[in-house]
Amino acid sequence: MKFKTEFEAPWAYCDNLLVLETGEWRHRRPIVTLRKCSQCGVCYLFCPTGCVQDMGDHYEANLDFCKGCGICAGLCPTDAIEMVREE
User: Fold this and answer.
1) Looking at residue 70, what DSSP letter applies?
2) Residue 18 pLDDT
3) Domain map of the chain by residue range?
4) pLDDT digit string (tens) for 46-59?
5) Which of 20, 44, 62, 66 has CA atoms 20 to 30 A from the CA of 32?
6) Reduced to 3 states, what is the DSSP secondary structure of residue 42?
7) pTM of the model
C-alpha cells in the first residue's frame, strides 16, 4: 500500500535544506532494494534532511544531499534500505 499523507512534506521540510549539496560529507550511502520497498513512506517522513524522494514505485534518497546518517535504513520496516560504505 503506497504511503499517502495530507501533509505536503516530511517533518524536516524547509525550503533552504536542499540548497547546499552536502552529500560529499557522508561515509555510507543508502541503497534501496526495489522489490522490498513497500512504499510505506517511513524513510520519507523521518529523513532529517528531507532528501528522500518519491520515485513512483519506491522511495530513494537524493545522494546530492544525503549525509548517510542511516535513519532511513534503521526505520525501514521491510529492510529495503541498506547502508553501504561510500567508495
Assistant:
1) -
2) 63
3) 25-85
4) 898 888 998 989 99
5) 20
6) helix
7) 0.79
Is residue 5 helix, strand or coil? Answer: coil
C-alpha torsion sign, points 41, 45, 46, 51: positive
Q: Which of 54, 57, 50, 61 is nearest to 83 (CA)?
A: 61
Distance CA 8, CA 79 (A): 25
CA distance 45 to 10: 5
- Per-residue confidence (pLDDT) for residue 85, from 0 to 100: 95
Q: Tell me the C-alpha distance between 80 and 43, whole Å.
A: 10
Between CA 79 and CA 29 the distance in angstroms is 15
Pairing of strands 52-54, 59-61: antiparallel
Q: One-letter amino acid identity for 15?
A: D
Confidence (pLDDT) at 36: 95
Task: Check if the beta carbon of residue 10 is closer than 8 Å to that of residue 46.
Answer: yes
Question: What amino acid is encoded at 27 in this protein?
Answer: H
> Which class in CATH covers the domain with range 25-85?
alpha beta
DSSP 24: G
